Amino acid sequence: MNRIFAVTLTALAVAGSTAFAADPVDFKKQVKPILEVNCLKCHGPEKPKGKLSLVSLADALKGGENGAALVPKDPAKSPLYTSTTLPKDDDKAMPPKGDRLSAAQQATLKTWIEQGAPWPGDVKLAQAEKVDFVKQIQPIFEVNCVGCHHEGHAKGDLRMDSKAEFFKSKDIVPGDAAASKVFTSTALPADHDDLMPPKKKGGPLQPPQIELIRNWINQGAEWPDGVALSQKEAAATTTRDMAAVYAAIHALLVKNSTVAPGTKLENFSETIPGTPGTFDMVAIPGGEFLMGSPDSEAGRKPDEKQHKVKIDPFWMGKTEVTWNEYELFQFPAFEKGTNVSTERVDRELMIFLNFPPPADGGNPYVGKEADAVSRPTTPYVEMSFGMGKDGFPAISMTHMAALYYCRWLSAKTGHFYRLATEAEWEYAARAGTTTKYFWGDDPKQAGDYAWFSDNSDGKYQKVGKKKPNPWGLYDMIGNVSEWTMDGYKADAYTTLPSDNPWLPGFAEYPHVARGGSWDDDIDGLRIAARKPSDKDWKMRDPQLPKSKWYLTDAQFLGWRVVRPLKVPATPEELAKVWTSFPPKK
User: Which of 82, 319, 390, 583 has minimal CB crowding within 10 Å?
Assistant: First the structure.
């Protein structure tokens, strides 16, 4: 009898019964994070799946095509809860993709509904990205916390090197950051005695790091089994010998530059070593063309003065760079299935670069070139803005971020990649045509070739789903606008040479984006149309100073890569190609 009673108690606890725990569930702290991470991607305000929106209490009570999602005090009649308990292969299981809710999260939802589903009327939900412990929290803890909180030196009886020991502490309350000293101590003023990490040890953390810790705890503080932490050095404490880095990358690219001038180029696929990433490159023949637009073209702007340009042959990405590719650069943990933090890579690289040259005279840097490239900081918002990542173009990156991706890709593959010059971009987009669009002058055909405001459903789309241009390039116009190498000047066409023209960047803004996007009307898709970047593209960035990597207000902007035949003659010239604009002296 005792055994049966014990089993019953356990079952009730897992189910989230309130019979033995009368504490009310806090909607904002406990339920809101669950719904925002797991439900709002499909049930947000714009075209919610099954016509079910979960933005507000009224929306949940109203429901969608299958009726109400929430029936207060009756979990069994609330699909918001019951769908999370279905087997993974059930068509009605929620969330349908990614991680399922934990038993604790299911119990929280059930208990909340049993308690009447209290949801403050003024609280509206917004889609949020799940915080990834390994990619986003582990590096913060290892650099800033583990040094004082590990086995043998557990300051304040808190260990942060072990999952089991960490959750024994009263300093962490999963689901409630406000009750977790692990979070609250990081949000104290810089001169507070209880600030963690203390000022003398690098504190306070940056606001985006503090926000990540808060969100991680509020989302349940998930820590994967088998992941142990160890102290790491901060990347900021190291100094790259960039001359050596560029020399190393340049030597690698020259060594692998084996295509002889005059060789007919062929399309090819490139694999990013050590990763699952691949992408396709299209051969673009050299030639001459009229760049810009004729005076007679409707919608023409004064900065499109028509002029003859000569272009050398090159390869261009078949599609825009996708999140699948960019996140290999953004998150080193994706490489080779390891949990390598940027901080560790930087520290090991610095040690490596200080090694003397090998006795055989070989290049001591080969094999470490890619590790030398700066990687993006952790984004402070979910950078796809709920529009999707798998197969979708990477967006909202600064010009510098796009260039650094090209630098990393070059070091990783051993082949020279960069952005297209403005002239190369237009030459490839026209693909031998001379009309307003590469399919002709008829705007009614745009839907066959491009995603734009008339057909995009208010978001970008997966790459390669429309018809390509005559040279086999997809989404050259529409979907997302594309960064070029060039700085923007209205009169640039009248000042640059005719052979392979390029205007290097001269300031952070403006640089040239081309091609129109999902958010443009038909006139924005004209091949000759130029779009100068603007500081307002990161207007809503909450950080001070604003991020060097991300553009909160350029959700229409991506890029594609090109691979020229020639590698710049010197490491110094190579550095200029991957520099957005000269640093201030």
Answer: 583
Measured CA to CA, the distance from residue 176 to residue 28 in angstroms comes to: 10
Q: Measured between alpha carbons, how far is residue 7 from residues 2, 17, 105 in Å?
A: 9, 14, 21
The widest CA-to-CA distance across the chain, in whole angstroms, is 92
Q: What is the mean pLDDT of residues 247-269?
A: 87
Domains of the chain, start order: 2-114 (no CATH), 133-232 (no CATH), 242-577 (3.90.1580.10)
Structure tokens at 148: 């004082």
Residue 313 makes CB contacts below 8 A (sequence gap 6+) with: 265, 283, 284, 285, 286, 565
State the Cα–Cα distance between residues 180 and 172, nearest whole angstrom. 5
Sign of the torsion formed by the C-alpha atoms of 252, 255, 256 and 261: positive
Helix (H) or strand (E) holding 557: strand 557-558
Q: CA geometry: angle at 53 spanning 47 and 59, to 5°?
A: 140
According to DSSP, the residues that pair with 564 across neighbouring strands are: 314
Nearest to 26 by CA among 135, 160, 148, 117: 117
Task: Kindly list the distances between the CA atom of residue 538 and the CA atoms of 42, 402, 535, 548, in Å, as whole numbers in the listed order.
Answer: 26, 15, 6, 10
Please choose, from the candidates 247, 252, 285, the residue with its C-alpha nearest in 3D space to the C-alpha of residue 266. 285
Alpha helix positions (H), 103-238: 103-114, 138-144, 163-166, 181-184, 207-218
Write down the pLDDT at residue 11. 37
Single-letter code of the amino acid located at 200: K
Which residues of 230-362 form beta strands (DSSP E)? 268-271, 278-284, 287-291, 307-311, 314-317
Q: In this predicted structure, what is the pLDDT of residue 96?
A: 79
Residue 14 near residue 103, CB atoms below 8 Å? yes
Which pLDDT score, from 0 to 100, does residue 240 have? 54
Q: What is the pLDDT of residue 376?
A: 78
Give me the helices (H) in 170-284, please. Answer: 181-184, 207-218, 242-256
Q: Cα–Cα distance between 89 and 109 in angstroms, integer?
A: 21
Which tokens belong to 397? 């990156």
Q: Which residue, chain included where needed, has tokens 């979907």?
A: 479
Query: Within 13 A of 556's CA, how many CA atoms are on the CB side?
Result: 23
What are 323's two structure tokens? 């999140």
Residue 383: its pLDDT value, please? 86
Between 350 and 580, the higher pLDDT residue: 580
Residue 57's H or E segment, with its range, is helix 57-62
DSSP 8-state code for residue 99: P
